[in-house]
Amino acid sequence: xxxxxxxxxxxxxxxxxxxxxxxxxxxxxxxxxxxxxxxxxxxxxxxxxxxxxxxxxxxxxxxxxxxxxxxxxxxxxxxxxxxxxxxxxxxxxxxxxxxxxxxxxxxxxxxxxxxxxxxxxxxxxxxxxxxxxxxxxxxxxxxxxxxxxxxxxxxxxxxxxxxxxxxxxxxxxxxxxxxxxxxxxxxxxxxxxxxxxxxxxxxxxxxxxxxxxxxxxxxxxxxxxxxxxxxxxxxxxxxxxxxxxxxxxxxxxxxxxxxxxxxxxxxxxxxxxxxxxxxxxxxxxxxxxxxxxxxxxxxxxxxxxxxxxxxxxxxxxxxxxxxxxxxxxxxxxxxxxxxxxxxxxxxxxxxxxxxxxxxxxxxxxxxxxxxxxxxxxxxxxxxxxxxxxxxxxxxxxxxxxxxxxxxxxxxxxxxxxxxxxxxxxxxxxxxxxxxxxxxxxxxxxxxxxxxxxxxxxxxxxxxxxxxxxxxxxxxxxxxxxxxxxxxxxxxxxxxxxxxxxxxxxxx
Length: 507
Hints:
CATH topology of the largest domain: L-2-Hydroxyisocaproate Dehydrogenase, Chain A, domain 2
Domain Lactate/malate dehydrogenase C-terminal: 290-450
Mean pLDDT: 85
Keywords: NAD, Oxidoreductase, Tricarboxylic acid cycle
Helix content: 25-40%
Low-confidence stretches: 471-481, 484-507
InterPro entries: Lactate/malate_DH_C, Lactate_DH/Glyco_Ohase_4_C, Malate_DH_type2, NAD(P)-bd_dom_sf
CATH architecture of the largest domain: Alpha-Beta Complex
Strand content: 15-25%
Number of helices: 14
Region (Disordered): 485-507
GO molecular function, one term: malate dehydrogenase activity
């Protein structure tokens, strides 16, 4: 059997004549088969060049015809162009073409119109399928391994939305990423259209609609807090440039991790100003750990505890506010329906435990980095994305790191964790909450470190000087329901084999 491939520019008259002759041969010869390929005029030359380079052919005009040798695995044998095909037809089949030049031109224009209509139909079909392009940076990180099964379960974006996942990391991680691709495909998820890897910087975030930024590693030694802060700038600048250049206009960027989350978020906003309003930092990891510690104390389930507010630096100097926290389904002498709740602070009678042991436990978790390990980090990111797309539970307070616009007296221009609710594909800051004022001293302590991190990272300040409180109490009396969670420099720094901090700076 002879199988010929006829490829040409969609508006080429010679392609039209070749096509008509090939159709005649296929109709009248039982062992003659053809396959047609057309390309738009503006992409034809590049397409032809790629085909010739791949097959080591030399051909420059439209059309190009080759024969596929089916008995040799489909290997292509170049026949040539229009003249060579006519000679072949006349020599082997005693058939020639008598199409006039005018008719050739008319059919060529019809071919171009048909090609454009076909492309439009294919694009419309893709739109109906609604494939969401999801990119994950630093995809070799443990959090990515735990995040993929959640994203592909349909719980985050919905069962009606198919997703394509691209795993982005450096070239050294390529083999690990290939294994991760195979494991992801083994899930046989009905919402997963495709999963691929990218290790080429220039191609990063191509058509991305969702970007998950995980913790990055650095290949240079960092010995001081100031160097550690400044080392975040180059990658954020690169990501910002690539997002602006390659990503979809409506892209949503979510920043997670255990190191300088607020700083990385504000830097991405600086270097990707076009989509700065769609960049957020995940605070649910800290919130989840606080709820778990409280649940162990009350001997209840963490999911029964709602409205814990995380203020400030997500991966550093933050405060856990329990003044609005409620407990549902609590086993006690007082019972009510499922929607009945009680204030948490009315159920914990040991105020010293709240101010001392609870604080120490959270600080220890931060120091070991436990609250940002793979499972919790992945779940926090996925839950935040779910709220972003489908809204948070009605009436529930969610903590989120966003750019301050002066709410609650927070200085503008820093990323700060604060209470929000998600609705209609965005978030709303809950500025109407009552009795959540924070003292000037505590607010200054939270904002001072964040402002200095930004200034030092950008080179506007040489040395980082942690805020020094005049009060020695861990929690001031007027803020006894705000829980301090500090982090020192060594715990803020990415724990990689390359970074070796030689001093500790108390925030």
